[in-house]
Structures are given as C-alpha cells and as structure tokens.
Amino acid sequence: MCLRSAPATVILASQDATETITAVTQAVDDALCDDAGLLEGVTSLMLLADASATPGTALTFGAVRTRNRSLIRTDREHGRGQRIMHALTEVTAPSPVLIADTANTTPSSETYRGLLDRVRGGAAIAIAEHPHFWDHGHGLLTDLLARPLTAATLGQDVPTPLATDLALSPKAWRTVRAQWTKLAPELRRCAGGHGIDTFLLQAAATTGPIARVRVPHVGGHPEPALAQLPRIYRDVAPLLLAPAATRIPQVVELALPRLAARRVHPEEITARRERLAGLARTEAGAHWSAAVAGAWHSIATTTCEDARDAADLVLDTAERLWPAFVHQLRHAFQLGATSSAPQCQQQRWRWSSDVITAITK
User: Fold this and answer.
1) Structural domain of residue 83, as residue ranges?
2) Exposed site from 27, 144, 177, 210, fewest CB < 10 Å?
3) What residues have CB less than 8 Å from 266, skipping those under 6 apart?
4) Confidence class of residue 41 from pLDDT cuts 50, 70 and 90?
C-alpha cells in the first residue's frame, strides 16, 4: 500500500524546533506513504518554513531520510502565521495541504493521515481534536472564548478551533490566500501570529464542510507560559470577534469538552492566580458571558466608515474584554482546583454555552 490518493504539500512552520523536528518529519513522511514505498509520480512535498535564530532546525530536518521531497526555507518571519502564509504562496499543485505543528512532542502519522483523508473525502478543512488538561492556558482560551464564538459564527460545534494540526482542501487553501490579501493590515498582523488557526478555520469554512479527527490522548503541544498569554489573546480574540460585524450568531448545542485530569499543587494554582492578577487590573463585574456578549454587540451595532476603522473597533473591543478574561481565568483556576473532573467538565460546558446564549439573545 502506498499513497492513498493524490500527493500533498506539508507545511512545517518551525522556530527553534531542533528537538522535535525529526519525529514530526518522520511521522509526516509515514502519513504520506507506507513502508512499501511510493507510487511513481505521486511524491509529496514537505516544506520547512524556519524562523530559528540558528541553523540547527533546518540542518536537522535536512538530515532526516524521507521518501518524499523536502524543501527548506530559512530566515522566515517570526510569526507562525506569517511563515504559514508565505509557504502557502509557494504551493502550486492542486492537492491538499497539511499543516503540522513542529513543536509537537507526540506526532502521530495516524492523525496526519486522517486529516488528509478527510479533506480528500470532501471536507474543506480537517482539524485534530484532542483533549486538553483542565488548567492548560490554551485550553482555557478555547473553552471560554474560541469555542463558543466559533460555534456561533460558523453554526456548528468545533471543539478545538485553535488546533495547530490541520489539513486544507485545494479550494480552501486558495480561498485562504485570497482572503489573506483582503484582511485589514491590523487584523493581518493578528493572523500572522497566533491567530493563524482562527483565520484558517474561518476562511476555509466558507468553502465547505469542517471535519474533525479525534485524537485519543492529550496533544504533545507545548503549553504556553502565562507570560505569553497576553500576546496569544491579542492575536486570537480580535479575529474571533471580527465576524460580529457581518454575521448573525447562531444557537449551537455544544458537546461536553474533553478535559484531561491532572493534579496541580494548590501552591501552584495560587502562584498562577497571582501572576494573572499582574497581567490586568481585574474587578468583579459583569458575568463572563455578559461581558463577551457586550463586546460582540458593540461591534455588531457600530457603523464604521472604512475597513481600518472596523479593524480598530475590533482591536479596541478585544482589549476592553481582556480584564474580564483574566478575571474569568483566575476564577477557573480557583474552581478547578477544588472540583472533580466531571464537575470541571460541566463548568466549562456551562461557561461556553452561556456565551452562545448571551450573544444570540
């Protein structure tokens, strides 16, 4: 058995991934073919878009023996989204594009193959769906904001809208490239960083169905430090809120989130809450769902003169929501530390569902 269908292009957007790039590359190569070898004329391409300060990642990638072609591009921009979009401009073959997270410590050829199979089978975009730890900052951003706003915008539940392993159909990646050029510069900067996954999902969803590949275990993606959270939020939140200007939010019934349990020492929870308190001045104010609804409706009901004014409105609104987000994070850490796994799961589901209810009233 060899390649299942037409060849694919794989984008590996890396930065200082010397320790993980070998395993990711091998898993991708295995997903594109099997031990029997390749059919003549259907070799796929693995494109490394590297922004590392040293040549270590590129050299390590180049040393991996693969059965598919490889291409190395170095001195790329530091934003992950910028590297992905520059790589997309080099794609010419009318074939699927797989985007694999090069920092993944547990890459799975089965997951990569499943993503490609879904888009070859008719999906516009396929996303890896894996559980996350209850105290994971990226997971909290997903449950509190990304998941409910994505569901209300697209009309369906996407449990992991910020997933960094995904595949795009040819029509979808062409649409992504076209919409990238139409983004206001302010929002393009967001998509050029941590907001790229949100942008890819929103753009691809306009061309066809969204598919999910269920991963049984927690992904091996590095957990961002709390100090990185403001940058991540400021890249992602504006793109999540931007559809409020043009979309009517839809009521969507969410499934329970897939949370993985782990014990975190109470002292660590206290330390995290203290660090969060230093990131924003937070006060007990409106309920979280009401705060998100206020942000959404502020954008929906404001008339802007041009695209720049509209982008500025979205950025300002996201910034005003930041203290409420930090307050809710601290609350989530406090409750989660004393809750059972089922209780924590129900809390997250209720918070996400309440956001949808609030913005669709």
Assistant:
1) 9-223
2) 177
3) 337
4) low
